[in-house]
Amino acid sequence: MSFQDVLEEVVADISAYRGQGKVAAYIPTLARADTSKLGVAAVLGDGKSHAVGDTDEAFSIQSVAYVFTLALALQHHKSALWNHVGREPAGSPVNSIIQLEMEKGRPRNPLTAAGSLVVCDQLIGRRSADEALEELLQFIRTCAGDDNIAVDETLAMSESKAGALNRSLAYFIAAFGNLQNPVEQVLSFYYRQCSIAMTCRQLARAALFLAFDGTDPVTGAQVTIPSRSRRINALMLTAGHYDNSGDFAFRVGLPGKSSVSGAIIAIAPGHGAVCTWSPGLNAAGTSLAGAMALERLVERTGWSIFV
Ligand code: GLN
Q1: Atom number of ligand 1 nearest to Cα 260
Q2: What is the per-residue burial (b if ≥16 Cβ within 10 Å, else e) of 12-24?
Q3: Which of 91, 154, 232, 307 ranks highest by number of CB atoms within 10 Å?
Q4: Of the candidates 194, 218, 252, which is a domain's last residue?
Q5: Do 169 and 225 belong to one domain?
């Protein structure tokens, strides 16, 4: 059976989950998302992309962006980044503020909203938020092999207006002296990284280097060094899905990152990268149909990293 047939079977298998779950109502555009949408795209080591469903429709990548921002910030700061953010699973919701007070403004890990705010601040460094964002966009475009990827500025503005909680997180971190740039600069970068618009196909392609030890198997370019690529995968496995990370590792067994737009990237080391998109979320904010599709896909391919 061809890989394309496997993907088609997976999507047919889980069709009952389409339309289930809740959209992220706290973000204006996402509140209107159509929960019947479902796309599954995979790019394998030979560079071939396989896609079923709504894989050419763009959505905001939301917290999947945290992974790319982290990869870039680690390139700039190397292990010094860990002075500002931890690498333990949080076991709490994405926008949780509770641990920040106890841990004195050093977020648990870079894949929570608080952690990503710190990573964004570090990536901005002494530049303007606009300049740093241009670098991030260029990085993602190169990884995806597509120069047309851009930020949905209207969405970024609307989320920022509604973003009392993330603003609170940023001020709280700043109060502990763990932000070097003004809160509004950091938030401006943060919301625009979340509002980068991409399709399933583009996201799967952009994440491919993480399945091949940091090197893009198609172009041969080293995007990041092997040890860093492995560590990013380790963080995704332990913290990529908020307080749902253990369940995702248990069911799927691949490093991955979920976001509230319903996107999930999953990394199958040595095989390829997968992106699923379906806006209906479970209680923790992970796409219901997307996680089911990945669970079925791994059953059929034997791609679990625990084999
Ligand atoms: N922009 C969203 C937020 O900050 C991203 C969260 C997510 O995708 N989990 O709330």
Answers
A1: 8
A2: eebeebbbebebb
A3: 232
A4: 194
A5: no
114: amino acid identity, one letter: A
Measuring CA to CA, how many Å separate 131 from each of 71, 77, 134, 170? 17, 17, 5, 20
Same domain, 84 and 153: yes
Interatomic CA distance for residues 235 and 113, integer angstroms: 14
Q: What is the pTM of this model?
A: 0.98
Q: What is the DSSP letter of 198?
A: E
Question: CB under 8 Å to 234, separation ≥6 — which residues?
Answer: 255
**Strands, DSSP E only, in 65-219?**
150-151, 196-198
Taking CB atoms and a 6 Å cutoff, what residues make up the pocket around ligand 1? 62-63, 94-95, 113, 159, 166, 194, 259-260, 285
Q: Hey, what are 299's tokens?
A: 């059953």
Final residue belonging to a domain, choices 150, 173, 194: 194
- Ligand 1 centroid to Cα of residue 285, in Å, is 9
Q: For residues 114 and 87, give the distance between their C-alpha atoms in angstroms, rounded to a whole number.
A: 13
Distance 63 CA to ligand 1 centre (A): 5
Q: How far is the CA of 302 from the centre of ligand 1 (A)?
A: 31
Same domain, 77 and 175: yes
Give the tens place of pLDDT for each residue, 69-124.
Answer: 999 999 999 999 999 999 999 988 888 899 999 999 999 999 999 999 999 999 99
Number of domains observed in the structure of the chain: 2
- How far apart, in whole angstroms, are the C-alpha atoms of residue 81 and residue 73? 8
Please, which residues have CB within 8 angstroms of residue 55's CB and are 6 or more apart in sequence?
39, 40, 41, 199, 200, 201, 277
pLDDT tens-digit series, residues 166-194? 999 999 999 999 999 999 999 999 999 99
